[in-house]
């Protein structure tokens, strides 16, 4: 038989046999794929933290104990700041995790915040924030940004607790930024009895990954993806349906971080179901 007669068969065989499957190649990951040849940056790992419900720093999201558990009386000598350990803050507010409502409470400059570990769309998260007497977090300056992101890290929330496909394949948490009213006009949610109030405008236009030309409004603070490099890449309104802002838990896109870093903001579709932060 001539080799030319075998070519179609060989090409078909190679098409299936020579494909390099992408997936998680780390055997320690929860979603390890033994058939994957190329790692695609989607590996998810167990959340580590204190799993002892009687401990001061019990983390209800922890799947694996990391040996960090502290007795409640270990917090008696702390300096009154929030360390995720369930101590009291200003006004007698209980800080740290409350497993009864999956909320992690912290304070910054006299204001109380709650990270809610409940997967909601932007609209539902906004409604829940309003119903609680607050609003989705409004980040005014670099100090508040640093405090919010630091407490996200202290909470022990896994950086891979979910995957937002239209946000570069990483996890996010809702903040109050949105341009729902008018594309490119970014405003903050604010406390309002109707749960539909919007606050001050802080950004206009798109970043370098989109149409470009975007800029801060009246010098208002922003921390869009790429801001740390001096050139914001976000917001970009990818697929023309990204109208809500969220804080990233890792660099994106997954595996490269070329558009943004952990702690920076990205615009994603309102329909994504993710955790959210309430400012009271």
Measured as a percent range, the helix fraction is: 10-25%
Biggest sheet statistics: 11 strands, mixed
Q: Any idea what the radius of gyration is?
A: 22 Å
- Note poorly predicted spans: 75-85
Based on DSSP secondary structure assignment, what is the total number of beta strands? 15
Tell me the structural class: alpha+beta
Mean pLDDT value: 86
3D structure, described in words:
This protein has three helices and 15 strands. With 280 residues, the chain is of the alpha+beta class. The chain folds into three domains: 30 residues, no CATH class; 51 residues, no CATH class; 171 residues, Mannose-Binding Protein A, Chain A, CATH 3.10.100. Strands 5, 6, 7, 8, 9, 10, 11, 12, 13, 14 and 15 form an eleven-stranded mixed beta sheet that branches. A two-stranded parallel sheet has the order 1-2. About 4% of the residues have low confidence.
């Amino acid at each position: 038989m001539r080799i030319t007669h075998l070519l179609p068969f060989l090409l078909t065989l190679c098409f299936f046999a020579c494909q390099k499957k992408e997936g998680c190649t780390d055997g320690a990951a929860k979603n390890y794929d033994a058939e994957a040849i190329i790692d695609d940056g989607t590996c998810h790992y167990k959340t580590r933290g204190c799993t002892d419900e009687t401990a001061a720093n019990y983390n209800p999201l922890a799947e694996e104990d990391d040996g960090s558990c502290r007795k409640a009386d270990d917090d008696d000598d702390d300096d009154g700041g929030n360390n995720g350990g369930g101590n009291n803050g200003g006004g007698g507010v209980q800080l740290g995790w409350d497993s009864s409502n999956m909320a992690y409470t912290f304070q910054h400059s006299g204001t109380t915040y709650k990270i809610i570990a409940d997967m909601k769309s932007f609209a539902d998260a906004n409604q829940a924030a309003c119903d609680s007497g607050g609003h989705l977090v409004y980040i005014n300056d670099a100090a508040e940004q640093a405090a919010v992101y630091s407490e996200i890290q202290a909470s022990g929330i896994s950086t891979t607790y979910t995957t937002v496909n239209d946000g570069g394949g990483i996890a996010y948490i809702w903040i109050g930024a949105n341009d729902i009213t008018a594309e490119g006009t970014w405003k903050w949610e604010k406390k309002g009895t109707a749960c539909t109030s919007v606050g001050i405008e802080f950004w206009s236009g798109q970043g370098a990954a989109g149409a470009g030309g975007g800029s801060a409004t009246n010098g208002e603070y922003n921390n869009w993806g790429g801001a740390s490099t001096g050139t914001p890449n976000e917001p970009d309104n990818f697929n023309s349906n990204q109208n809500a802002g969220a804080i990233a838990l890792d660099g994106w896109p997954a595996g490269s971080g070329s558009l943004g870093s952990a702690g920076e903001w990205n615009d994603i579709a309102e329909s994504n179901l993710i955790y959210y932060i309430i400012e009271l």
